[in-house]
Amino acid sequence: MPADIPAPADPALPATPAVQAPHPRFAVGVLAFCGVVVAVMQTIVVPLLPHIPELTGATPAAASWLVTVTLLTGAVFTPVLGRVGDMYGKRRVLVASLAVLVVGSVLCAVSSHIGVLITGRALQGAAIAVVPLGISILRDELPPERVLSAVALMSSTLGIGAAVGLPVAAVVIENFEWHTMFWVSGVIGLIDIALVLRCVPESPLRSRGRFDAVGALGLSAALVCLLLAVTQGADWGWGSVRTVGLLVTAVVVALLWGAYELRVATPMVDLRVSARPAVLLTNIAALLIGFAFYANSLVTAQMVQEPKATGYGLGASLVVSGLCLLPGGVAMVALSPVSARISAKHGPKVSLALAACIMAAGYGVRYFTSHSLWLIVAGATVVASGTAIAYSALPALVMRGVPVSETGAANGLNTLMRSIGQAFCSATVAAVLANITFRAGGRTAPTLHAYQLVFVIAAGAALAALVVTLFLPGHRQAGAGTVGESRKAPGIREGGVRTAQIQEGA
Predict the structure, then answer these.
(1) How far apart are CA 226 and CA 223, in angstroms?
(2) What is d(CA 466, CA 318) in angstroms, rounded to the nearest whole number?
(3) Which of 360, 375, 450, 493 is 20 to 30 A from 97 via CA?
């Protein structure tokens, strides 16, 4: 069939006109840049937290919500917007997510009121859905041989942004008025939107059916209850009525939601697909990898800032402590294509197993090298390197187990699992560092053993991810899509011209 003649499409759906697609290289670069910016927004406020009570008059408990609320909204909106993108257009929803980021940034830039700041941070957190949406666009738009490397880079932006965000925020805080970083993030968000509209084509692939609003509300309610209990349990008390009540409510709502999802025609999350070993085990591994990754980010900056009176602290400045994670971010950029080549040659299962081993080894280095700045940086970089390979392999495993039309929702769920792992890691690290302390230099500080225990727990999570990975099926599930595959009529992509694609059902 000639390239300029549309392929046959489902008569029930409108045909998509032929359009001139931008060069895929520009789309990959733009989407990866968007992913890094969104990920930076999740961590950029962390160095500012100790100063928020003084700057805003808020309590320390209220200030902590500047981080907690992004976790909550990111967890809720990532799978929901992934599904909306599958149904109504991935680029359209991605642009809307970036617009939400801009609005949130402006709110934080114009006010010092803690309520407004929390609202702005909630909007910034919702934009994390950009990453799974970008992965889905790349799967739809790129030729199969380029999908693995592009998806590897896009997925790694979550770790790259986290590594870049801390030192950037530290430099801004020490040299500029603190609202500046939110103005900058708003401007960059607008640039992102313009680049996406110019360089990223809209995928014509759509899922059929109606949006499952009840399923979205049920999933959101279960996630909010679970994550509130996990993130606030240390402050409220793990045995308090609020914490236990939220956990019980999360379980009950999740069970009711699951029963409903199994009966509805077009569910928010296709639990039958999600229960396939290839998908279920990948999501469990994502949770464990998210836990193992986040410990590295949480404790590195704090550890090197501990005063020398502790016997292990280096008394480093805020900027120096943030820069400790920067080599890890560079390593993640460099290793994304390496991970893609390993996955292409040996399969993403091998990549994920290798990544888990590297992360565990990195924490082994960290356990024994807590007194030297350069060795701390080396250990943190090894962990980040393993994270890069893992984050690159996870979406490839997901895409092998789900239909093409469900890529956005499935990758959104996988990203959600990483976020839940990070939430559990945050709670675990806070509990360990708050309860294993001693007096040093006139203040209470975590002991060296407390930090080492965090490294042991994180290494254990990485090894648990390795065990889960070994049980992954080594072949593609029946009825699933191949990485890089989208069902097209002949002549769909010739000479840079993209025509209509046959719709694939959910």
Answers:
(1) 5
(2) 34
(3) 493
